[in-house]
Amino acid sequence: MCKTEYAVCGSPHLLEGSLSAFLPSLNLAPRLSIPNPWIRSYSFDGKEEWEVNPHYCNTVREIYPYSNSNRLLNIVDMAIFDFLIGNMDRHHYEMFTKFGDDGFLLHLDNARGFGRHSHDEISILAPLSQCCIIKRSTLLRLQLLAEPEYLLSDVMRESLLQDPLAPVLTEPHLLALDRRLQLILGAVRKCIDTFGEATVVANDTRQPQSPAEHRAKLDT
């Protein structure tokens, strides 16, 4: 089957691929499937609100659990990941129920990633560009992977060499990672120029105080 909206087609009708699932059974670890607030319309007839309203994030911030948890920051992390791999199909995400609202997001179903290496779909970054927030730990890691000695493409290339299916990604896809990383950092800089670093960068890198430090503060 081949349709114009699909990124790849069979040759002539078969397509070689792979499927990996390493999650425990739902009986052992129940999961919730949650719609992505930035889900696409998947239709030529209309658009979702976020696609036409640049202030859409203000609405999302008022909706539980995005109003009082790290969930929105995790959504931004997910959008950054999807932009790097070129995945436009993040209609849902999942979470283990055991960890409650502050659990981590499961990035399942990445089948549309690494499609067109020559196209950077900026709309995938809407959670970042509209909300203008990012974890400090995420930003520091992205900045490190933009340094010449730690380029994301080089790190990925070396990592994938260990895979039995190496090289896994073609060279144009690897180079696209570096290009897209610069676009992400550019979006963060634009947010900081507009709102200031204190507002945009969420400090999640603080280390908890040791008991001795806590007692010293109380004594003073």
Automatic annotation (TrEMBL):
Record-listed Mn(2+) binding positions: D109
Gene3D superfamilies reported for this sequence: 1.10.1070.20
Gene Ontology cellular-component terms listed: Golgi apparatus
Domain (FAM20 C-terminal) ranges: 1-200
Residues in the signal sequence: none
Active-site annotation: D89
Keywords: ATP-binding, Disulfide bond, Glycoprotein, Golgi apparatus, Kinase, Manganese, Metal-binding, Nucleotide-binding, Transferase
Main localisation: Golgi
Cross-referenced InterPro entries: FAM20, FAM20_C
Recorded superkingdom: Eukaryota
Cofactors: Mn(2+)
UniProt binding sites for ATP: S20, A21, F22, L23, E94, D109
Subcellular location: Golgi apparatus
MF term (GO), any: ATP binding
Protein family: Belongs to the FAM20 family.
Protein name, entry field: FA20A Pseudokinase
Source species taxonomy: Eukaryota, Metazoa, Chordata, Craniata, Vertebrata
